[in-house]
Specification:
Structural class: alpha+beta
CATH superfamily of the largest domain: Anthranilate synthase
Number of helices: 16
Helix content: 10-25%
CATH topology of the largest domain: Anthranilate synthase
Distance between the termini: 62 Å
Number of strands: 32
Number of domains: 2
CATH architecture of the largest domain: 4-Layer Sandwich
Strand content: 25-35%
CATH class of the largest domain: Alpha Beta
Shape: globular
Radius of gyration: 26 Å
C-alpha cells in the first residue's frame, strides 16, 4: 500500500511516519507541503492513501498549507487522514470555519467520546488523547461533514466527509502519552483500502523520506574507516582529574576536560586531552562561509570546502563499533568540541544572528586520559608515533599526583535578582514583554512551546581553570566540561544529555523540561520536587519536547525502535530539581552518526515545537546570537560513537567578557514573572564560578 505523508513543517511528523510504517508494513513517502512535486498533475493519485501532518498556523493561509490545499481539491477520490492542522484543512476545504478554540490546549490530555465507527471502530470510549492546538473547527460543521468525536469541553475532535473518503482528527494519535494511536491509523488504512480497492501498491523498496529527512551530505564527504587500535595503559586508581588537567593541559591552547563532576549518575567517565599529538588538528567553522578552517598540530591552516558536518563525516566511520580491547568506554580518540546554536542555519533554520565565537570548534585528539569513577581506575589511550613514550611519561606524572577525592562542596549561588539584573542584555521589562509576545503566538497556534532565553555579560575571570574549579564545586553535573579553544573557553555545568550514540547504534536523548528551585528545608524541598513531577504545566512542557525528540530520532532510526523507557522523572542538583525523560532509538543502517546529530540539532529542549517555526519566532524576539549556549558539546569518537550535552548552565569566556545564557520554556500556563525568575535562577549557576 503506497502512502504519502505530507509534512506541514511540523516537529511531530516523523512520529506519524513511524506509526504509519508499523501499521502498513512499508514506509510512507514524505513531502513537505511546499514541495513542488505536490503541484504536479495527479500528484496524489499515485498513492493509495494520504496522511496530512499537524503544523503551525491556519489552514486558510498559503504559507501554512503550501500547495496542499490545491492538491487535495484536485484529488477527491484519494483517501485522506488529516491530523490537527490536517484535520482543520479538511474542514476549511469543505467550507467550514476554523477559529480560536474556547481554550488553547498544548500537551493537554483529554478523554475522547466517539461514535464507534470508521476511525474509532473497536476503540473504547473515553480513551486518552493528547491535544496540541489553539484553533478548532467551529460548529455546526458544513453539511458535507459529520462530527464523529468530541472532547470533554465540547470541541470537535474528529470528523468525516459524508461523500468523500476523508477523515480528520484534531488530537495527536502519535503522541507518546496518548492511547490507541496505532489502532486509529490501522482503521484508516482499512478504510482507505475499502474505499479504493485498486489503489497503487507500495514500492518494492522502502519509500524515500525526502522532505524532512536530514540534509544529504556532500558527495565528497565519504565516511572514514575506523583507525588502528590504540595503545592502552591502565592505572589501578582514579587520578584526581583537577590535578591532572592542571598539570598536563592547563597551558595547552586547545584542550578539553569532559568532566563527570557528579559521579554515580549517567556519566561514569571523565576524559582529558588536547590537540598536541601527531594526528592532532583543530576544525573551526562559521555558517555561511562555505568552508572549514583546518589547523593541524604540525602545519599551517588550510580551508576545506563544505560545512562542519561534511568535515566530520569525512573523518569519522559510517557505523558505530565497540571500543577495541574490551575497554569499558566508547571514547578512545576522535573529536571533542561544540556545535553553537547558530549552526541551525545548516540544519533547516535561518541565519538570523552572527555569533562572535565560531559556530563550531572541534579538536582531534589521538592521546587522552580516561578516568573510570565507578571502578576507580585510569586509562591512558594513545595512537600514532610515540604512543608508548607518551603513555610512559604520562603515567609517571600521574603517579606523582595525589589520589582522587571528591571535591569539597562549593557554595550554591547566593546572588539575588539585584546582583544579576545589571548584567542582562534584555531588561526585566523587555523580557516580560517577550514572554507575553510568546503567549500571544501560542494562543494564535504559531507554536506549542517557545524556549525563550536572555543573555548576560560579565567581566572575564582572571583564571579560567580557577573559575571552572569553583563552578564544578558549586554545581556538580554529569556532563560538566572545560574546553580551552584558543580565544574561547567554555565552562559548563550541564545536567542534560543531547544525544548519545553507543556502539550498538542506539541513540539516546535525555531532555530536561521543568525546573524548580531547591530549598534548605527538607520538607519544602521534597514538596517542590513532587509538585514538579505532577504539575500540569511542567508535564506539558516535558511531553511536548519528548514528542519532538521522538520525531527527531524517528527521522534517522529504524521503524519501531523509538521508545521512551523512562518518562518524566526528577533529578535533583545543588540548586534545582529537574524533570527529565529518556528517549531512545536504533539508527538506521544507512544513517551516519554525524547525520543523526545533524537531524536532531538544535536540541528541541532549547527551541520548542514545532522547531522551525518556533526558531523563527525566537529569532525575532532575541536580538543577538546565542553562540555556544543552546548548542551541543562533547565527543565524536573514532569508533563512530558520540556523547553530547546540551549547552546550558554554561559560561563562555571570549576576550575580556564572560557570556552566560539562560531562559525557559514558555507554554500556555506560563506566568511572565515566574518565567523571569526561572531565567535568573538558571543564570546564577554558571556565574557561581566567579
Amino acid at each position: 500500500m503506497r502512502i504519502l505523508l505530507v509534512d506541514n513543517h511540523d516537529s511531530y511528523t516523523y512520529n506519524l511516519f513511524q506509526l504509519i510504517a508499523r501499521a502498513a508494513g512499508a514506509e510512507p513517502d514524505v513531502r513537505a507541503n511546499d514541495d513542488p512535486r505536490l503541484g504536479a498533475d495527479g500528484a496524489l493519485e499515485a498513492y493509495a492513501a494520504v496522511v496530512v501532518s499537524p503544523g503551525p498556523g491556519h489552514p486558510a493561509r498559503n504559507r501554512d498549507l503550501g500547495l496542499l490545499g490545491a492538491a487535495l481539491s484536485s484529488a477527491p477520490a484519494v483517501p485522506v487522514l488529516g491530523v490537527c492542522l490536517g484535520h482543520q484543512a479538511l474542514v476549511h476545504l469543505a467550507g467550514g470555519a476554523v477559529a480560536l478554540a474556547p481554550a488553547a490546549r498544548h500537551g493537554y490530555l483529554s478523554r475522547i467520546r466517539h461514535d464507534g465507527s470508521g476511525l474509532f471502530a473497536g476503540l473504547e470510549q473515553d480513551f486518552t488523547a493528547v491535544r496540541y492546538h489553539s484553533l478548532a473547527a467551529r460548529t455546526p460543521l458544513p453539511p458535507e461533514l459529520a462530527a464523529t468525536a468530541f472532547a470533554e469541553d465540547g470541541v470537535v475532535m474528529a470528523a468525516r466527509h459524508r461523500a468523500l473518503p476523508r477523515w480528520g482528527v484534531q488530537f495527536h494519535p502519535e503522541s507518546v502519552a496518548g492511547e490507541h494511536g496505532a489502532d486509529l491509523v490501522a482503521n484508516f488504512l482499512r478504510l482507505a483500502r475499502e474505499s479504493r480497492p485498486g489503489a497503487p501498491a507500495a514500492a518494492a523498496t522502502a519509500a524515500g523520506t525526502g522532505a524532512a529527512a536530514p540534509a544529504a551530505p556532500a558527495a565528497h564527504a565519504a565516511p572514514a574507516a575506523p583507525p588502528e587500535p590504540p595503545r592502552v595503559r591502565v592505572l589501578d586508581r582514579a587520578v584526581d582529574t583537577e590535578a591532572a588537567f592542571a598539570r598536563l593541559y592547563a597551558r595547552s591552547p586547545h584542550a578539553f576536560w569532559l568532566d563527570s563532576s557528579r559521579t554515580g549518575g549517567p556519566a561514569r567517565f571523565s576524559f582529558l586531552g588536547d590537540a598536541q599529538g601527531p594526528g592532532g588538528e583543530v576544525l573551526t567553522y562559521r555558517t555561511g562561509e562555505g568552508a572549514v578552517t583546518v589547523t593541524p598540530a604540525d602545519g599551517p591552516p588550510r580551508r576545506e570546502p563544505g560545512t562542519i558536518f561534511d568535515a566530520l563525516r569525512r573523518r569519522l566511520p559510517a557505523r558505530p563499533a565497540p571500543p577495541p580491547g574490551g575497554l569499558p568506554f566508547d571514547f578512545t580518540g576522535g573529536y571533542v568540541g561544540y556545535f553553537g546554536y547558530e549552526l541551525k542555519a545548516d540544519c533547516g533554520g535561518a541565519a538570523a544572528h552572527r555569533s562572535p565565537a565560531p559556530d563550531a570548534v572541534w579538536l582531534r585528539c589521538d592521546r587522552l586520559i580516561a578516568v573510570d569513577h565507578e571502578r576507580d581506575s585510569t586509562y591512558l589511550v594513545a595512537r600514532g608515533p610515540g604512543a608508548a613514550e607518551w603513555a610512559a611519561q604520562t603515567r609517571r606524572i600521574l603517579a606523582a599526583l595525589a589520589p582522587a577525592s571528591d571535591p569539597p562542596p562549593g557554595t550554591a549561588p547566593a546572588g539575588g535578582d539585584a546582583d544579576l539584573e545589571p548584567l542582562l542584555e534584555r531588561s526585566r521589562e523587555g523580557y516580560l514583554t517577550d514572554v507575553k509576545e510568546c503567549l500571544r503566538r501560542l494562543e494564535e497556534g504559531e507554536s506549542y512551546e517557545i524556549c525563550l532565553t536572555n543573555r548576560m555579560r560579565a567581566p572575564a575571570p582572571a583564571d579560567d581553570l580557577a573559575f571552572y574549579r569553583r563552578l564544578r564545586r558549586a554545581a556538580p553535573a554529569p556532563y560538566a566540561a572545560l574546553l580551552q579553544l584558543g580565544d574561547t573557553t567554555v565552562h559548563s555545568a550541564s545536567p542534560e544529555r543531547f544525544l548519545r550514540i553507543g556502539a550498538d547504534a542506539v541513540a539516546e536523548s535525555r531532555p530536561i523540561k521543568g525546573t524548580a528551585p531547591r530549598s534548605a528545608d527538607p520538607g519544602t524541598d521534597a514538596r517542590r520536587a513532587r509538585e514538579l513531577r505532577i504539575g500540569a504545566k511542567t508535564r506539558a512542557e516535558n511531553l511536548m519536547i519528548v514528542d519532538l525528540l521522538r520525531n527527531d530520532l524517528g527521522r534517522v532510526c529504524e521503524v519501531g525502535t523509538v521508545d521512551v523507557p523512562r518518562f518524566m522523572y526528577t533529578e535533583s542538583y545543588s540548586t534545582v530539581h529537574q524533570l527529565v525523560s529518556t528517549v531512545r532509538g536504533r539508527l538506521r543502517a544507512d544513517t551516519h552518526p554525524v547525520d543523526a546529530v545533524r537531524a536532531c540539532f538544535p536540541g528541541g529542549s532549547m527551541t520548542g515545537a514545532p522547531k522551525v517555526r518556533t526558531m523563527e519566532i525566537i529569532d525575532r524576539l532575541e536580538n543577538s546570537a546565542r553562540g555556544v549556549y543552546s548548542g551541543a558539546l562533547g565527543y565524536l569518537s573514532h569508533q563512530g560513537t558520540a556523547d553530547l550535552s546540551i549547552v546550558i548552565r554554561t559560561a563562555v569566556r571570549r576576550g575580556a567578557g564572560l557570556d552566560v545564557g539562560a531562559g525557559g520554556a514558555v507554554v500556555l500556563d506560563s506566568v511572565p514573572q515566574e518565567e523571569y525568575a526561572e531565567m535568573l535562577l538558571k543564570a546564577a549557576v554558571p556565574l557561581s564560578g566567579g
